[in-house]
Amino acid sequence: MRPPKARREKPKVSAFTSAKIGAILALEPDLVIGFSDIQADIAADLIRAGVEVWISNHRSVEGILDYVRRLGALVGAPLRADEYADALRSGLDGVAADAARLPLRPRVYFEEWDEPRISGIQWVAELVRIAGGDDIFPERAAKSLARDRILADDIETIARAPQIVFGSWCGKKFRPGQVAVRPGWAAVPAVRDNQLFEIKSPIILQPGPAALTDGVREMARHIRAWSLVQ
Predict the structure, then answer these.
(1) What's the rounded Cα separation, in Å, for the pair 30 and 33?
(2) In this predicted model, what pLDDT tens digit does every residue of 88-145 receive, in sequence order?
(3) Which of 53, 62, 152, 190 has the fewest other C-beta atoms within 10 Å?
(4) Residue-wise over 153-191: b if at least 16 C-beta within 10 A, else e?
(5) Which residue pairs from 42-46 have beta carbons closer than 8 angstroms and sit at least 24 positions apart in sequence?
(6) Mind listing the pLDDT tens digit for each residue in 34-50?
(7) Which tens digit of pLDDT belongs to each residue from 8-37?
(8) What pTM was computed for the model?
(9) In sequence order, which residues have a C-beta less than 8 Å from that of residue 147 and are 6 or more positions away?
(10) Per-domain residue ranges for the chain?
(11) How far apart are CA 109 and CA 36, in angstroms?
(12) Of 3 and 227, which is predicted with more confidence?
């Protein structure tokens, strides 16, 4: 949770897929903000209880920037939100400009979950490209629902020979050693060259400012290091 102070001081009334409806109502919120179809049931319960709810459902970098602007308008701070969105875009442009000067672009596999294997969502694939890599499953990244990004087996991943693997297992620690010993993965360049890295889920799997700042910079750092030693 960002900032860290919020984790210490704010009451925890909701996880991503479940919520304590009574605890939320006790806070007497003027507006509840959520994200994605996954929270539809939570939103429905709150709406039935008479609470105003806004659920965004964006999946892209442009969607994140638009979300910042719309949220700012909702809370009466449109100018500040526009300035912040412009600053976020400028930061991404800077990351992309640095990446454009790298001598090589790696093939990148981003794993959102391990059992079953789930490849990265659209904004993640876009940020991989901005950071200087090429996501190996761009056609799957275009699928908004996780079930449509499940990899039935490892054959296709192995065949696409990723040179870097980023893991972000949505709330649990990424284990590079577990990836390295998967059957058939020994010849994968990322395994062979020990290019298996965790990108912590709070800075990449939430479609908000953290992904556009800390998340993309962390991926860019690893991509740059790989590119400069090839």
Answers:
(1) 10
(2) 999 999 999 999 999 999 999 999 999 999 999 999 999 999 999 999 999 999 998 8
(3) 152
(4) eeeebbeeebbbbbbbbeeeebebeebbeeeebeebebb
(5) 42/14, 42/18, 45/19, 45/21, 46/21
(6) 998 889 999 999 999 99
(7) 777 788 877 788 999 999 999 999 999 988
(8) 0.92
(9) none
(10) 1-57, 94-228
(11) 24
(12) 227
Which CATH class for the 94-228 domain? alpha beta
Residues contacting residue 227 through CB under 8 Å, at least 6 positions apart: 102, 103, 104, 105, 106, 132
Query: Residue 1: pLDDT above 60?
Result: no
Token pair for residue 199? 């990108």
Give the number of other CB atoms < 10 A from CB of residue 225: 12
Q: What pLDDT is attached to residue 8?
A: 78
Q: Cβ neighbours of residue 122 under 8 Å, at least 6 residues apart?
A: 59, 60, 141, 142, 144
- Are 109 and 151 contacting, i.e. CB atoms less than 8 angstroms apart? no
The rounded percent of the chain whose pLDDT value lies above 90 is 87
Q: What number of other Cβ atoms are within 10 A of residue 214's Cβ?
A: 16
Quick one: which of 224, 155, 165 has its CA closest to 193? 165
